[in-house]
Amino acid sequence: MGSATEYNRRDIFKRAAAVTVMAAAGGPLLAACAAGGGSGSGSGGGATATGSATNPFGVKSSDPLDVVIFNGGYGDDYAKAIEGIYKATYTGANIAHLATQEISGKLQPRFNAGNPPDVIDDSGAQQMKIDVLEKASQLTDLTVLLDAPYRDDTSKKIRDVLLPGTVEQGTIDGKMYSLNYVYTVYGLWYSNKLFKEKGWTPPKTWDDFITLCGTIKAAGIAPFCHQGKYPYYANYLILDLIAKQGGLDLVKRIDALDPTAWDDPAALAGVSAFFEIMQKDYLLTGTNGMTHTESQTAWCQGKAAFIPCGSWLENEMIKITPADFDMAFLPVPSQNGDKLPQVAVRAGAGEPFIVPSKAKNQAGGLEFLRIMLTKEASGKFAASANSLTVLKDGIGPDVVLKPGTKSSAAAVTAAGTNTFNFTYPDLQTAFDQALQDATNELVNSRMTPQQWIAAAKAATSKKV
C-alpha cells in the first residue's frame, strides 16, 4: 500500500506497534461508532451526486476542507499541489492541511468524537485499519466517485480511467471504500552501479540468486537485508515467491483466507526458497532488529546488495542515496515450475485515501479525490514523489522520472498482463499481522518453513 518514510509507514507501514494500533481501533473506536455511524453496519456514508458535470457532488465554494496526509515516503508536497488545484476551483475554501505519521494517534479521537477530517491519506504504522472502519460504518461508499465525471473529459466516468485492480483493492463486500492512489510495484532492489562495478548479473532464477549471493558474500558484502522490525517487507518476497509458483488462483485463495491454500505445495516451496537466505547466512548482520530506515540506509551505503521493498523506496531514501547509486528494480526471481513467468511482478494500487462518512465536507473530500485523478495532479505526484498513480496514461512526457522509478515502470511494461497483487494486508489485518509474527520467527531461525505454513493456515481463522 505503498507510501512512507517510515519512521513509521513503512516505519512500519506495518508494524510492531500495529498490534496495539489495531487493538485500539477495535476498542474505543468501535464502541463509539456502534451506536451511530453511517446508515447501518458496514454501509458507510450516504454520499450522492447531485451537482453538475463540473461539480458533481455539489461542493460549496465557501466550505472549508480538512485534509490529513500521511507524511511518509511520498511526502506531502503533492497534496499541497492538489490543494492548490482545489483552491483554484473553490476559491472561498479554507484548507486545513496536516501532514503526520501519527494517523491513528491524531485521528482516532476525532473519529470517536464524530469530527473526522474530510479526506485522509490513511497509511503508515498507525494507519486506521480500513476493515475496522468499514465495519464501524465510518467510511463513505466511493461508488459515487467512480460514477462521477472525469474532470479532464466529462464524457468519461472516473471508473473508466483507473488502472485494473484499483477498484478491487479498495473494495469490501462489493463496495469501494478507499481510493488506492499510487500504482506500487514490489520486488527486490539493487544498485546498478555496484553490480556493474563487480560484474554481477541481476539474477532471473532463484538458483542464480542464491549462487550470486554466495559470490556477493565472498566479496565482503552482505547479500541481503530487510526491514527486520517490520516483517511485512520480508513478506513481500515470501508471498511473491508463493504467488509466482502457485499462480493467480492461489493468490485469490490466500486473499479469501482459504485454509486449504496453505496445503498447496507452492506455499512451502516459496517459504523454503526464502529460508535459504537464513540457512546460508546471507543476512546483513543486525538486519533482523533494524527499522526500515536503518536497513535501507545500510543498503544505500553499500553494506548489502539486495533489499525487498515497494516502489516508494527511491523517494523515501532520496536524501541519503548517493547521486551515482543508480537504483534498480528486480522482479522476484523464478523457481523451477513457476506458474507465472519470470517477468511477472506484484503491482497494483496502494496508498489508500478515504472520506469519512461523518466528514463535515464530505462533498469536498470526494471532489479532492476526483481532482487527484487528473493528468495535472497525477503528473505533479510523479514529479514530487517519483512514483506512478492509478490514472491510466497519467504521466506525460514532460515528467522526468528517477532511475529506480524508470526501472520499476519498465518492469511493469515488461510484465504486461502478468501482474498480481494481494488484498489481505489492507482488508484482513488480523491475518496479515499473524503472517508478520510468523515471519519474524522465520528470519530469526526460530521457526521452520513447515511451521510457518502451519501458522499461516491457523491464521486464516483470524478476521477482524
TrEMBL record:
Keyword set, alphabetical order: Signal, Transport
Q: What is this protein called?
A: N-acetylglucosamine transport system substrate-binding protein
Give any Gene Ontology cellular component.
cell envelope
Q: Does the entry feature the keyword Transport, yes or no?
A: yes
Record-stated family? Belongs to the bacterial solute-binding protein 1 family.
User: Which InterPro entries has this protein been placed in?
Assistant: Bact_solute-bd_prot1 (IPR050490), Chitin_NgcE (IPR022386), SBP (IPR006059), TAT_signal (IPR006311)
Compartments where located: Cell envelope
- PROSITE patterns found in the cross-reference section: TAT (PS51318)
Q: Which residues form the signal peptide?
A: 1-31
> Iron-sulfur: present as a keyword of the record?
no
